[in-house]
Amino acid sequence: MSDYNPQDGQRESYRRGRDFKPSPAPEPPKRSRHARNQLVIFLNFCLSAVFFLTLTVGAVLYWGKLEFDGPGPLTKEATYVVPRSTGVSTIADGLERDGIISNASIFEFGVRLSRAGGQLKAGEYAFAPGASMRDIMNKLKSGDSIMHSVTIPEGWTVHHAYERIESANFLSGPMPGEVAEGTLRPDTYLVQRGTTRKELVHRMQAAQNQLVKTIWEGRDKDLPIKDIGQFLTLASIVERETGIDGERAHVASVFLNRLKKGMRLDSDPTFLYGVYGGGGKPSDKPVTQSDKDSDTPYNTYRIRGLPPGPIANPGKAALEAVAHPMQTDDLYFVADGTGGHVFSATLKEHNANVAKYRQLERERQAQQDGAGNDGG
Prior knowledge:
Distance between the termini: 184 Å
Radius of gyration: 46 Å
Number of helices: 13
Number of strands: 6
Order of helices and strands: HHEHHEHEHEHHHHHHEEH
Helix content: 40-55%
């Protein structure tokens, strides 16, 4: 029989477990207190810097927006010209220099932030007192610039039209070479300051070319005119013969009737153009018999048919009158003394009308002479 006692084994195991101590795990290296302090300070600095930077940027943006949207420095209306192909920086500097805005940098930044840098248009602009930078930006974007007018009356020659275009100080650049007579459309043209004179002349040529072509294509088909050149020439003569709207188609019928019969046109404006050209007869110089007898290709008292080209720039009404003339048998007309004309189909009627007109002129001259004597 064994002497083993289970209780003695349990007591031994308990004692061994109580006496066992596990080996301690190695401790991680400790960061020095000095190192921990430096990192904390750096992180705090970065966070503070970001905070204050964000606060500063926000404040600057807010102030800039107030400046951009707030009333500007203008106390009275002012104008500013934006030349073509001008960048935002140059525009901003010019606006500040002229006292239209208070700060070029804010204006430029606001324009770029609005993505309007490529939308500012050239031209001359008027700005109201107190206009904000945003108002100014929007106006430059809209292209709502000041427009100047150049008016070329119907019946003016190219020479006279060029004089007016050259004298317009809101236009730029030299005059182009003189274009052919009759090829400028009489009209009022609206242009921006800085438009070149060459551009305007080309615009007038294109307008006249289109107008003449359109009316020619819709003309009456029985006209005794060979081509569009003759059409333009006759319209210029009609234009110079009368400025009365209701008479143009009647005057055109007279000249067309004479062309059909092979008669000379006998038009005074044609021989005067042949003598004096596009500059015209001086106002203080009377028409002489030598003028009427002048040997030029424009003297329709000597040549048959039409002269070699226009004698002025005809307008739409004169062109329409030749394209759609009044249907008459008239071959003559003469001034009636009131600004209009009296028409006739026979030479006898015409001579009677001429006699009436000359008598009227003699009476007027006698009245003027009498008034002058009374004054003396």
